[in-house]
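Hi both,

Apologies for the delay on this - the queue was longer than expected. I finally got the flavin mononucleotide-bound model through. Below you'll find the protein sequence and the ligand SMILES exactly as submitted, and right after that the structure tokens for the full complex including the ligand.
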Amino acid sequence: MAAQARSIPRLSPHTVANCLHAAVAAPSVHNTQPWLFRVRGRQVEVWVDRDRQLPALDPSGRQMFISVGAAIFNLRIAMCVNGRIPVLRLLPDATRPELAALVQAGPLTAPGPAATVLAAAIARRHTNRRPYRAEAVPWPVLDELSGAAAAEGARLTVAEPIPRDAILALTRTADEILRQDAGYLTELAAWTGGDPGRQDGIPAYAYPPDDAAGRLPLRRFGPAREAARFERRPTIVRLTTRGDAPYDWLRAGQALQRVLLTATVRQLAASPVNQALEVPELRALVGGGHGHAQMILRIGYGDPVPATPRRTVSEILHPDTASAESGAA
Ligand SMILES: Cc1cc2nc3c(=O)[nH]c(=O)nc-3n(C[C@H](O)[C@H](O)[C@H](O)COP(=O)(O)O)c2cc1C
């Protein structure tokens, strides 16, 4: 057994760089990129970066763990297409709760078609807050998205018209409550706009236009440059989990990313609309009997939008990382 383990090769610097590059392309709440990585031999440690948590919006760290879960999914997929079977352990050390996961490069493998297709979607996936076309998402595609969530231990359900309108009404109420919270507004200001060279936060070009009909309560990150007509009947899905602890949030994040990449493969756009999940009394109403609501997504067909910035790989290495181990040039 030991001899067999020894024969499994280390990660090459090229593979490490590919894996980390893929991981940081993940979505994150307010584009905070709350992750750190440390590479040891053939093991990648993924840490949550508490310095990037949003204390007003996300006091429990739920959305931070979901964001890190999304990065873990990208890392796993990148490891597959770089010819290694990823072996995942979530929260492997109870004494170090910031260590979100160990992703070990297992034996060599020929990448399968599913991983190859999802990996190719990583760079094309962007949050799209613009109007979508009035074109229904076919049920087989919605089923495929539900299957993607289920494969990662979460549940994705499509909100029928009445629950959908109820969720949007809750979102509007939540938005009004949040906008009276000075802490929320201060955080929003800190993570939006900024100088053009900034490598995190949400740039003004990614803000949603104003909804001319006032129906769709997308989060307002700053003054919109224009007004637009949004789809009258948005497709709203919710992602739920059975539990509601860091382990479940990491699962939800992986499910979220598998859903978003699958949507990208199917030419679908998506944008989270999460305000109702940030007011505890309202969040409890969103789950719809399916468990704890982790994400609310609007999906549909839209025109492409540009990517948002990311920090470079050298900036997301754990401070204890020896540069020789990182393999990141
Ligand atoms: C846990 C989580 C919560 C998010 N919540 C919202 C939200 O409520 N509204 C929104 O417009 N975008 C939301 N986003 C999208 C992020 O703002 C987006 O991922 C980030 O700005 C990076 O942009 P990108 O997805 O285009 O790469 C969320 C993303 C994550 C992972």
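Main takeaway for now: The longest helix spans residues 62-81.

I'll put the files on the shared drive as well.

H.
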